[in-house]
Amino acid sequence: MSSSLATSFHLRDYDLASTLESGQAFRWFPEKNNDEDLSTSWTGVIGARWVRLGCSSGRVSRRESAATITAEAAEPVLDWHWLSEYLQTEVDLDRVLSSFPIDQPMQTAMTACRGLRLLRQDPWECLASFILSSTKQIVQIRQIVERVCTCFGEPVMVPPGRAPAFSFPSAARLADVRETELRACKMGFRAPYLLTAARNVAEGHLDLSALRQMPSVDARARLMELPGVGRKIADCVLLFAYGVQTAFPVDVWVMKALSELYFRGKRANLKRLHLFAETHFGPHAGYAQQYLFHYMRMNRGT
DNA sequence: GCCCAGGTGAAGC
DNA sequence: GCTTCACATGGG
């Protein structure tokens, strides 16, 4: 096996834009390539590696489609497994989508964002990012996360001529930071929550790798012991970092989606919505949730 | 100025 | 139990 600066994945179906911009991860920046091809690339940092991703997709036949994802790194890579794991390229998306309920809302959402995948992210980065997410718009979450990385992350190698890039700071690093330094990143009242989480993880009171082996209800309960982490944030971490397919985060958008699409505009409380989600959306309910979330946001009137 | 944002915890019924 | 409110900040 030889190392390379670039690789590609050939897949049946992969919508990189929906995947990277549907509010799962907050460190991807789109860049227009050139005027001839209207394609977009994204640059970001996964772990300690800078990476640039591109995607071209086409229709092979009436029903079949294909996608090629290209990736460039800043340093030669021997084994690209970390990237295929992050992007979940091995997942059989057809099997996931065919498990969705055959109802109008789900079919519409599925058609609208076909190719959207759930990423598999680092638990600490995911937890910390979603602690910062509460009552913030996705653009602002991105800004806060970036400030945190610039201030406290480690510089990572970038290709010549590229802007400096930084890793997401470890829990140990953030555990040593003062609350006022965090507030300087404009995270407001979330600062003490992030700090407490960092200290709990750094000091070993919360073992994020151990959560993987636990029943998801127990893992959720452990996450929710942290101040500032409730059901929604815990479910985001279960779904986006641990791959718990039944985790179903309910935020304002999903609440809106469920009430408009399934409850005839009547607002239902969270308990009722979770009960509905558990019984209605099947074994990949978390995936269904992400499709509903992204579909609702695509059609927002801004 | 006003309302809202991938919420949560505490206080009030 | 459930509903209301404060929390910090910025976009539209």
What this model shows, in words?
This protein has 302 residues and is an alpha+beta fold. Helices cover 44% and strands 16% of the residues. The chain has 15 helices and seven strands. The protein has helices at 16-21, 81-87, 93-97, 104-112, 123-131, 138-152, 171-175, 179-183, 191-202, 208-211, 216-224, 231-240, 252-262, 270-280, 285-298, and strands at 4-11, 29-32, 40-46, 49-59, 65-77, 155-156, 165-166. The strands form two sheets. Strands 1-5-4-3-2 form a five-stranded antiparallel β-sheet. A two-stranded antiparallel sheet has the order 6-7. Helix 4 (104-112) crosses helix 15 (285-298) and helix 13 crosses helix 15 (285-298). The protein starts with a strand and ends with a helix. The structure holds a DNA duplex (13 and 12 nucleotides).
- Report how far apart the termini are: 49 Å
- The percentage helix is 40-55%
Q: Biggest β-sheet: count, sense, barrel?
A: 5 strands, antiparallel
Biggest sheet: strand arrangement: 1-5-4-3-2
Report the sheet-strand fraction: 15-25%
Molecular shape: globular
What does the average pLDDT come to?
95
* Secondary structure category: alpha+beta
Q: Specify the number of helices.
A: 15
Strand tally is 7
Give unreliable regions as ranges.
none
Q: What is the H/E order?
A: EHEEEEHHHHHEEHHHHHHHHH
Radius of gyration based on Cα positions: 19 Å
